[in-house]
Amino acid sequence: MTSPHITTFLPPESPLSMPVQSLHKAPERHGRAFWRLPTTPTLLWLRRLFVFGMAFALTAYSVVKINAVFNSLGTSLLGMVMLGLFTILSFWISLSCASALGGFWSMLRHGGLGLGIRRTGPLPELKSRTAILLPTYNEPPQRVMLNLRAMLKSLQETGRGEHFDIFILSDTTNPDIWVQEEQAVLDLHQHAYARQHLFYRRRFKNTDRKAGNIADWVTRFGGAYPAMLTLDADSLMDGSLIVRMAAAMEQHEQVGLIQSLPVIVGGQTLFARLQQFAGRVYGPLIAQGIAWWHGSEGNYWGHNAIIRTQAFAEQAGLPHLRGKPPFGGHILSHDFIEAALMRRGGWAIHMVPGLMGSYEESPPSLTDIAVRDRRWCQGNLQHARILFTKGMHWVSRSHMLVGIGSYIMSPLWLLFLLFGILIALQAHFYHPEYFSTQRSLYPHWPHVDPILARLVFIQTMVVLLAPKALAFLAICFDKQERQQAGGVIRLSISIILETLLGALIAPIAMLIQTSAILSILLGRDSGWSAQNRDDGSLPWGDTIRKYWLYSLFGLILSAAAWSVSLALFLWMLPVLVGLLIAIPLVGLTGSRFWGTWARKAGLLLIPEETTPPPILQRAAEERNHPHPVILEAFHALRSNTALRHAHLATLPPPRKAGEPISVPLLTGSLKLQESPTLEIALARLTPAEKAAVLSCQSNIAILADLPVSSPNLTDGPYGS
Fold it and tell me: pTM of this prediction?
């Protein structure tokens, strides 16, 4: 039983001012430089020249060749539109290829380390305290606590654990999960280290979502911590990595943020295993590339990064955008903007992808990732209104353009396909004029050059697949990682399998993102829902209902292509197949059965599976020893005195006259007062009313005295 004297979850407050920034005025940099920062790599301008120069050169070559393919169309409207779309799409994949080449070079030279951080060797000493922030929103507490317990043990084992405090920052609205979080923290407080270093804070108003959650902590407690390390609810970081990042922040006074490279782990479904394999095999190369040319103008991915609290408070106070959602209101994809504003204020932003020990999880299915992507899509499109912020570095603007482009490329690919069919139809029904009005010895034979078209296709595929080939070479050069990924043969088969399945899923994802953009343009907000992290399988009826339109669209495209020519149909077959089999493809990739089969077959393996690092082993041990979980908040508070005392200590002060009236609290209080038993109260209260009742001290007193109608419910707060 938890000690009854524990009545608070928080340390003394240490307020820090966090002013809202203006996007239309130059920031106050307090004498810091803007263009050349102390941690800027030597000849960074040359790296950027290589990346963009190569991207433009590849694009120009491709555009010249594709124009020659359709030389019979001259300067027709369809041809010009097709050429414009191809130019944008070609530059997109060329930029990725050039960046990957830079990453390959970086991996061969120094493995993507920087800022003097060492991957191995003795851990550095620390001088200051760092806060580890774990925001959570309606996540199952028992799942969140698994990783947290592993991180607490890992931090203790470093011998530097006294320099870190962990804050669970809850925005949870589900009343049962709220009390489960409190009970989980009390359980952890049975251990001396957690009792001294683990804190819990729940907000009663979810203003500005996660960005507001972090900002609330900064303004209340940020003054006591020079640095803060931000996590997600599914984050897991090795204690030694945390220590090394904190030491690097101490060493470089003008660095505002250091971003690690989170590796996806724990995938059970086939879709999740595809995601984690791609992230682990291709991800390091891609991250090395962008870190290589971003330099001190890096980006922030919202989690698994350490931030200088002063820099964040000084520069990252986010304004609300004019208008209503989806383009107005608070900024959804806040991390990009926070990094850009800190860099605008003269703070360096770095990514250090060569350090291992940073992990996260993947949504288990295409359906689940589409829900998350819908919110990210809205947030990234919202960045179009922030692109021209005064004083922002051009590389920070490029981050936003890349974020926007990652979504608008889907409708552009779709338009490219549709215009390709239209051009084929035009060529099919076009009656050429062999002799022009000008005298000529030879007639003009219009044609689409099939050999040149094939060469353009091959070149495009080479540019598109080059990052995967380079990543394969990079992992093959590392004997240990090569063996841990299954060896050359299994690794090769896995890359082929991931590429084929990815190609089949791509057109479905293209339509999902296109429909998301259309819904945003129609003014529909994405809302805020908790992320599913477990089984991604759906009943086949639900899968059919969600994806039959994609198969129908594939059938229409197939008929259109077939009506023009067999050659066009075969040319479009890679896109058509994925759409035609959308229903079984989504259903099977969201299944654990095929994910388990792939692992047993030695396919889609990552080194963290075959040789788990210590932090993942600790997390697995915690998973094998689950802690009891309370099922319902009212019964738990009624039967557990320590939990009730701790809960009461977190509640806001009673409402004062003149303050806004909470309708759920008003109606919930009346229902509770008029309920003769606890079970009747539970039956009458809505979830919102139940949460409001739990936030009122007088209602907790009523709850403690309320009779229970069934003796079977008084045995204790824990479920079986």
Answer: 0.91
